[in-house]
Design brief:
Elements (H helix, E strand, L loop, with lengths): L13 H15 L11 H8 L3 H14 L2 E4 L3 E4 L9 H20 L4 H16 L1 H7 L1
Antiparallel strand pairs: 1-2
Length: about 140
Amino acid sequence: MLIIELEMQSDTPIYTQLVNQIIEGIASGRLKLGEPLPSVRSLASDIGVNLHTVNKAYTLLKQEGYIQVHRQRGVVVDPDGMPPVTEEFMAKQHSQLKPIVAEAICRGMDKQQLLDLVEQIHKGIAETDNEKENG
C-alpha cells in the first residue's frame, strides 16, 4: 500500500515528490510488480492536488519504465520488472550526487561519514520489505 506524504512548502515540485515516493515505494517493496496504483483522478483527489500534477508524475514514471498504463487495468507498477542501470542513468546519478558531495565536503563531512549516510539510507529503504515479511 502506498502512503503519499507531500511537503507543500518544499522547493521540490509536487510532481517530483510524487515520482520519488512511488519509486521509493517500489524500492522498499511496499509496491509490488504489477500492483495497481490509484487513477490520476483518484490520487489527485486523495492528496488534494491538481490532476495535471499527478498526470505529469505518472507520465514521467511511464517514460522511465517504472509503471505501465493500460486502458482496462489502469495504472500498474510495471509487471515486467524495473528499468536497468544504463549509461544515461549513471550520468543522471552522477549529476545529482555531485552537488550533494560537494556540499558535504564544504561542511567538513569526510568520505566515510558520507558513505555511512548513503548506506543508512539504502538500508532504510531496502529493509522495509524484509521487516514486513519477517515481522
